[in-house]
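Researcher: Please translate sequence to structure tokens.
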Amino acid sequence: QVQLVESGGGLVQAGGSLRLSCAASGSIVSIYVMGWYRQAPGKQRELVARITSGGSTNYSDSVKGRFTISRDNAKNTVYLQMNSLSPEDTAVYYCNANKPGLWYWGRGTQVTVSS
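Model: Translation complete:
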């Protein structure tokens, strides 16, 4: 069973930065597609960024140029560096690991951006 534990969320002012971390059990970071999703109150969960086993990255249009996803295979950890945060980025951020037929989620970390 894969376990994903997010950390690094919190309260930040608009324009500020946060770095989220997702620690995975087992050596999955290098072989699964790892992603960050977010869910704001009253909205559906949406993809923020993902990184494939080959290192390719994808970002939602709303965060492109501001957020960066990366991973450290040795530490089994995926990161999301978030810069130029705005109140619209306020949400619970979830870490995801997936490969065909298998999806795993963390419990989420709250990010709140004040104006």
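Researcher: Any highlights?
Model: The chain is about 0% helix and 55% strand.
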